[in-house]
Specification:
The chain has 302 residues and is of the alpha/beta class. It has helices at 16-27, 56-63, 81-101, 122-138, 160-168, 187-198, 218-229, 240-256, 265-272, 288-295; strands at residues 8-11, 32-36, 46-50, 68-71, 106-110, 142-146, 150-152, 170-174, 181-182, 184-186, 205-207, 209-210, 216-217, 234-238, 280-281. Strands 3-2-1-4-5-6-11 form a 7-stranded parallel sheet, sandwiched between helices. Strands 7-10 form a two-stranded parallel sheet. The protein has a two-stranded parallel sheet with strand order 8-14. The longest helix is centred in the N-terminal third of the chain and has 21 residues, at 81-101. The chain has 10 helices and 15 strands.
Length: 302
């Protein structure tokens, strides 16, 4: 792709995954137009559009002339189901409709593996609703929907506690079921997968990238971390009732101070789900050992 071609549009470009995607788009020669709520420093090959998902004029400016729109922006915590729905579903549909009107060739929605189980949490329900709403709003525009698994990498605040725990030699296991299957991928691998979706590969539809084939269990994660860190990482079973009680307390305390807790009952139900394997094995993705090594900022083995 050449920078003289039509630009690609990105929401969520200042987030953990969004930054990785923008870096890869620029490296591939794309001219990027990105939505931001706050002023950003000048960046080569990136045009910043100030506004948010409620700003229809900013969204039109974002989409005008863009060949592909990557929609990554979303709420991961909110005080109510209604707020989740307004941002994650309604705003996604608004953007898809404006992208279609602007003549975009393709719309890529970054959803979540949680959308597969919408009954578990308001967040999961909002991501499932976003998928349905985007499909309706897109009309005849090509769309692709990707449901990433858990994403890790250096300096990610969302997984910092997990990585700190591994460094300290322990891994909490929600519900104590060490055989439950999870999916974890490195941030740059997911960004590369999303970039490929923008070019029409894989084809249209809902895709759930994963690596390695079959996913990984909590026990497998601990064993791999033990190998990578050269120190034993112990599994620490955490009973489901204890997790749920702690989540309700966290929600209550946060509410007293007018804040929103990422750790809540819905998130606990997601953590307790026994099978988060994806369905699309991603060729060329890093294995779990290398993923952990990079996320933990460890030197490669000579």
């Amino acid at each position: 792709m050449s920078s003289s071609e039509a630009p690609v549009a990105v929401t969520g470009a200042t987030g953990f995954l969004g930054r990785a995607l923008v870096d890869q788009l620029v490296s591939a020669g794309s001219s990027v137009r990105a939505l931001t709520r706050r002023p950003q420093p000048a960046t080569r090959h990136v045009e910043w559009i100030e506004g948010d998902l409620d700003d229809a004029e900013a969204l039109r400016q974002l989409c005008t002339g863009a060949k592909t729109v990557f929609h990554l922006a979303a709420l991961t915590k909110a005080r109510s189901r209604e707020i989740f729905m307004a941002v994650n579903a309604t705003a996604a549909a608004r953007l898809a409709g404006l992208a279609r009107e602007a003549g975009a060739r393709r719309f890529v929605l970054v959803s979540s593996l949680a959308a597969r189980e919408p009954h578990l949490s308001p967040y999961a329900a909002s991501k499932a609703a976003a998928e349905a709403a985007v499909k309706e709003a897109a009309g005849d525009m090509d769309i692709a929907i990707v449901r990433p698994p858990a994403i890790i990498g250096p300096n990610d605040t969302a997984t910092a506690q997990l990585l700190d725990g591994l460094k300290a030699g322990w891994l909490p296991v929600p519900g104590g079921r060490s055989s439950s299957t999870i999916a974890i991928m490195y941030v740059d691998d997911i960004a590369r997968f999303i970039l490929q979706l923008g070019d029409g590969e894989p084809p249209d539809g809902v895709v759930e990238p994963m690596s390695p084939p079959g996913g990984v269990t909590w026990r497998g994660l601990a064993d791999t971390a033990t190998e990578v860190l050269s120190k034993r990482v112990r599994l620490v079973p955490v009973p489901a009732p204890l997790l749920l009680t702690a989540a309700y307390v966290a929600e209550g305390v946060s509410g007293l101070f007018g804040k929103t807790s990422y750790f809540n009952a819905g998130k606990v139900r997601e953590l307790l789900h026994p099978d988060w394997r994806g369905k699309t094995v991603m060729a060329g993705a890093r294995d779990l050992s290398e993923t952990l090594r990079l996320a933990l900022n460890l030197k490669a083995v000579e």
